[in-house]
Write a structure and sequence with these properties.
The complex is a heterotrimer.
Chain A: E1 3-13, E2 18-28, E3 31-33, E4 40-43, E5 48-51, E6 53-55, H1 63-71, H2 73-76, H3 98-107, E7 110-118, H4 123-132, E8 137-143, H5 148-155, H6 159-173, E9 177-181, H7 185-189, H8 209-222, E10 229-232, H9 242-250, E11 264-266, H10 286-295, E12 299-302, E13 309-315, H11 318-328, E14 333-336, E15 344-350, H12 355-370, E16 377-378, H13 392-400, H14 402-411, H15 415-418, H16 431-445, E17 462-465, H17 478-486, E18 490-493, E19 496-500, E20 503-504, E21 512-516, H18 522-536, E22 555-559
Parallel strand pairs in A: 1-4, 1-5, 6-7, 7-8, 8-9, 9-10, 10-11, 11-12, 12-16, 21-22
Antiparallel strand pairs in A: 1-2, 2-3, 5-17, 13-15, 14-15, 17-18, 18-19, 19-20
Chain B: E1 2-6, E2 18-23, E3 26-31, H1 35-42, E4 53-56, E5 59-62, H2 65-78, E6 82-86, H3 92-105, E7 108-111, H4 118-127, E8 130-132, H5 134-140, E9 143-147, H6 151-154, H7 158-163, E10 179-184, E11 196-199, H8 205-216, E12 226-227, E13 230-231, H9 232-244, E14 247-252, H10 254-257, H11 263-276, E15 281-286, H12 293-304, E16 310-311, E17 318-319, H13 326-331, E18 337-341, H14 345-348, H15 351-359, E19 362-365, H16 371-375, E20 378-380, E21 391-394, E22 400-403, H17 414-428
Parallel strand pairs in B: 6-7, 6-18, 9-10, 9-14, 10-11, 14-15, 18-19, 19-20
Antiparallel strand pairs in B: 1-2, 2-3, 4-5, 4-20, 7-16, 12-13, 16-17, 21-22
Helix pairs in contact in B: 2-17, 3-12, 3-17, 4-11, 8-9, 8-11
Chain C: E1 4-11, H1 14-18, H2 26-32, E2 34-37, H3 39-44, E3 50-54, E4 59-66, E5 74-78, H4 81-85, E6 100-108, H5 116-121
Parallel strand pairs in C: 1-5, 2-4
Antiparallel strand pairs in C: 1-6, 2-5, 3-4, 3-6
GO molecular function, one term (chain A): hydrolase activity, acting on carbon-nitrogen (but not peptide) bonds
Pfam families (chain A): Amidohydro_3 (PF07969)
Protein name (chain A): Formylmethanofuran dehydrogenase subunit A
Chain lengths: ~575, ~425, ~120
Amino acid sequence: MNELIIKNGIVFDPLNNIKDEKKDICIRDGKIVDDVKNPKILDVNGLLVFPGGVDGHSHIAGAKVNSGRLIRPEDGRRSLKPKTSITMPSSGYSVKNVFSEGYDYSIMGYTTVVEPAMPPLSAIHTHEELRDIPMLDKLSLTLFGFNWFVMGYVSRGEIDKLAAYVAWMLKRTRGYGIKIVNPGGGENWKWGKNVDSLDDQVIHFGVTPREILNDLMKVNEILDLPHPIHVHTNKLGQPGNYNITVDTMKLASGFETQRGREPLHITHVMFSSYGGENWKTFDSKADEIAREVNSNKFITVDVGQLMFGDTTTMTADGYLEFNLQKLTGFKWSNSDTELETGGGVTPVIYSPTVPVNVIQWAIGLEAALLINDPYQVWLTTDHPNGAPLTRYPEIISLLMSKEKREKEILQVNNAVNKRAILPSLDREYEWNEIAIITRAAQANSYQLRDKGHLGIGADADVTIFDIKPNEIDPSKDYDKVEKAFSAAKYTIKGGEIVVKDGQIVKVVSGKTYWTNAEFDEYYELIEDDLKDWFANYYTVNLDNYGVNDVYLTNPCMIRTNPTIGSRVRLA
Amino acid sequence: MIIKNVVCPFCGSLCDDLTVEVEGNEIKNVDNTCKLGYNKIVGYSHGRIEAPLIRDKEGLKEISYDKAIDEAAKILCNARRPLMYGWSSTTCEAIEKGIELAIKIGSLIDQTATVCHGPTTLGIQEEGKPSCTLGEVKNRADLVIYWGCNPFHAHPRHMGRYSTFTKGYFTNKGRKDRKIIVVDVRESDTSKVADIFLKIEPGSDYKIINALTSIIIGNGDILPEEIGGISKDRLEYIAGEMVNANFGIVFFGLGVTMTGVKDKNIGSLSRLVKELNRNTKFSLMPMRGHYNVSGAGNVFTWLTGFPYAIDLSRGYAYYNPGETTANDVLARKEVDAILVVASDPVAHFVNPSIRRLAEIPLIAIEPYTSATTELADLIIPVAISGIEADGTAYRMDEIPIRVKKFIDSKFKSDLEILTDIINRIDRYE
Amino acid sequence: MKKKRVKLITGRTIEQGMFIEHKTSKEYFDATATCFMNERLIKELDIEDYVKVNTDIASIVLRAEREKGIPKDLIFIPMGPWANFILNIDIGLSGMPSFKGVDATIEPTDDRPLELKDLIGLYKG
C-alpha cells in the first residue's frame, strides 16, 4: 500500500464546495481516501492546495503540432534543456517537443490535458505523440466539422447513420468527443473559399453550418457522449465575427441534456468576439459575447487568451491560417486531409504596440471578467495559438489583480482605452474561481468524474502551490501569484510526487481516455457507405484505417448509453 | 493463406492494397504491386545475412547474437563522437528506440533525408509547406505538375493510385479530368505521358520558379525573353494554366532538391504555391523515397524538436544542417564510430564520407549483404520491417499506416535489437 | 584521346530500385554501373562499350548506354556506389552533397567497371 497524507494545506475544491479550508488530504494507491494508516506525511503548512490542473483545449499532439515544430527550428532552439538523470532533453517555446510539453504542464501543476483536434486519417500520429508525452492523462477530440460522411448524412437527414458513423469514428480513432472546426467552411477552403454565415451552403454538399451543428449536437446527445460538441466557430479570426458566434451559441439555447451538462462548448472565444468591419475598425465585442453566455446556461466557453510575444498558430481552419499569413508574410503550411478535415500553421508575433493585438489581448480578459459563472469559462490560451502554455501563471495574476491590469494597460497601445472596455472592469478573481476555471469547470465539462476535485474516490492528482492564500493579497502581490503558479511546490499525479519545488522528480506515464458509444448494429447501418467511399475516394484501405490500443498508454474506455430509436447499447 | 490490404514497405507511396499469398512461412505470390515492391517482398529471403558477423584481420566471422550486442554496446560506449544513421526503412517504433539510444550515449543522429529531401526541409523551414493528402489530389486535382521527379521509376504506382490516372469524387473521368505538366532536364517515362513537357536547362529550376512567381504576381514585364531554356511566352502560358486550375499540385523530387541552390529551390517553390493560393487552390508535395522516411522526420521532430541532423552530445538537441549533417561530420573526420540501421550509406554517400566510414568502427543492423556490410566491422542481421516485423510508417503525405508482419523470422526486429543494445549499455553503466 | 565536359546527374531508375536489396547481384551491377548518354555524344567521342567519367575527386569506368531523351551535354548515372564514387562533399550550408548537375569529363576507355567488392575495396587503406 502506497499512502500519503497532505497535512495543513489550505484547500480549494470547488466541486465539493470546499473553499479556503484547512484540511488534510489522504491518498492511497493513487486515489483520494477518507483516512490512511501509515502514510508518508507531507506537511504543507498553510500552502494553497488545488486539485490537479485540467486543460480542456491545448494543441500538444499530432500532425499540426509536428508541422509547427518542423517549420520552426528557431522556436525549437528556444528553451533547449539538456537531459537529466531522469528527464529527456527539452526543446521549444511555443512548439515544444513531447517531453517538454509533459514536464512544463506538470511543473505548473497540471495533470490532465486535452488535445482538441485529431484528424481521423492521421489519428495514429496524434496517439503516437500522446503516448510519448509524459506526466499527463490525455484525451483527444476527433474532427467532424466538414467531414464528407457527416455532410452526406446531414444533407439526407439520416441522423441514425450519422450517430453510427460518429460512434464508429470515435472508436476507430480512440477519440473522446466531437470537435467541429469551421463547420462546412473547411470544405469550401479546399476550393480556396469559405462560408460567411450559418446559412451559407457548402459547395457541392448542399448543407449549411447551422445544419451540421444542429445534427451533430443531436448526435452528441443520442450517443450520450460525455463532452459537449466542441466548436471552433465559422469566420474565426475575422473582424465582425461576434454575430456568427452569438448565432452559434443560440443554437444550444434550451437544449436539455440527459447528463445535465451543456450541449455546446465554444472554444477559444477570444478569436470569435471581434467587432468592426475590417482591421482598421476592429474592436472588442466581448461584452456582447458575455451577455449571451450570462443569459444562456446551455453553453460554456474557453478564453483562448492572447499574450504578447512570439508564438505559432495552428488550427484545422486552413482558411484562417492562410489569411493570417497574408497579413504577416510569414511562412505558412497547409494540410488538407481527404474527405475529413484540413489545417494550417503559421507563426505570429503579437505586439503590445499593435492596436489589433492589444484589443485581442483585452478581449480574452474581458470575456473572463464579464462572464459571471466561472463554470462557463475555462482558462485556456488555445496553446499555442494565443500564447504558449507557460503563460498561464501571468494570466492568472492578471485575472486576480486590477492593479496588475492597470499597470499593463499603461504599457500597451492606447487602442485598449478606445476600442475595448478592459480598463473599466473592476472584477478580481478569487482563489476559488481560479480553481474552477483551471480545473473544476473543465473536469465537469468533460465529465471526468475522477478529475478536477479532491473528494473521496477521485484520482489523487493534487497541486500544492508555494503561496499562503491567507497571508497574501493577490490583488497587490500579483508577482508572487505569478511565481507560485509558474512552479508548483508539489505536483502529485496518481498519488505520486512528480514535481517538487518546481522540478520534475519522477517521470510517469498517464492514462488515455476515449469514448465508446457503440450501439446494436451500428456498424451494419453504415457498412455499405464505408466500403463504397473508402474504395472510391480514400487512398487508405478501410482495414488499415484507425488506431488500436497498442498506441495508447493505459487506455481508459468510457462506455456511454446511446438511445437511438429502439436500439440499446451492446452488453 | 491470402493476406489482403498489405502495406508495401518500399517507397513513400506506401500502397496499402497489396495481396500476399503465404504458404507455410513462405511468400508464394504478391498481387497489386509494382516491380519495386514485388522484388522486395518476393525476394525477401534472397541473400540474407544468416548470423551476426564480426570483422577481424582475416575477414568476417560468425559470432553469437549475445556477443554481437555486447560488441555493439562496447563500440558505442567507447566512441567519443558516435553517429547513428539510417532509419527510413524501419518502423517509427524502432526509430523512437534509436533516438532513445542516441540521447543516452550523446550521439549524432541523422536520417536518409540528409541525402534526399533534406533541402526540402530547409526550404519549408523558410517558407512553410502548403500541402494536402494524396486523396485530395485523387479527388480534386485538375492540374498535376511533376517537377524534377520521375514517378514511373521511383514511385511506379503513384500516378495510377493517387495522382494522374485515378478517378476521384470531383475527377470522375480520371486522366481526362486532369492536365499533366512535367518539368525535367531530360525526357523520362513520366514526361511521355504529360500534356506539357518543359525541358529545362540543368540547374535552372530556381530561375524558372521565380519567373513563374513574377508572372503570377504581375511582375512578368521584368523578365527576359528566355529563362533556363524556356521562352517567356511559354512560361506565361504555364502560369496561366496554374492560375486557372481549380486545384493544382506540384510533386517535386530530387531533381529540385539536389540541383543548383538546393534548399532555395524549395523555398521559392513554396512561395510560388503560396502566391497561387491567392487566386486558386494549390499545394506542393515532396516525392519521398523510402517508405518511412517521412516517419523518420516526424519521429525525430516530436521527440527532439528537429527533423534530422541532430547532435545530442550536449545533452540537448543541437540542429545545424551543413554542420551536423552526416556527410559533413564524416568528411570532417569527426565521427569515430557509426551505427547504421535500415540504410546503405556506403552505396549512397559521397566519396569523402565513405573514406571516413572505412576508417572507423561500423556497426550495421542489416538483413542483406550491401555496400555498407562490405565495410562493416560488426553486422547484426535483422527481420525486415513490413514483412517480418510490424509497426508504423508514414506515407509521403505524412499519413501514418501500420505495416504488417506476415512472415515469422528467426531474426529480431530493429526495435528489439536496439532495445537489447540499450539494455546492455545500462548494464555497463 | 577525345575528352568532353558534361554535366553529370544521378538518380533513381526502376532497375536500380528493383535490385537495391541485392547489391551484390549481377542485376544491380548492370543497373547501376552504367552511364546513360545521348547517342550523338557516344559517336562524337567514339565510345564503344565503356566510358570513363572523371570529376574533381575521382574517376570511374562504366558501361555506356544510349538514351534518346537525354540532352547531348548531360550524362545520367543511376544512384549507387559507382556514381557516388566520383561525387564530392559540397561545401555549402545545406548539408546536401551535389548529386545532380556535377561538372565532369568523359572519355572512351577499354577498361571494365569494377565489381562492387573491388570498388568498395578502394576506400580501404
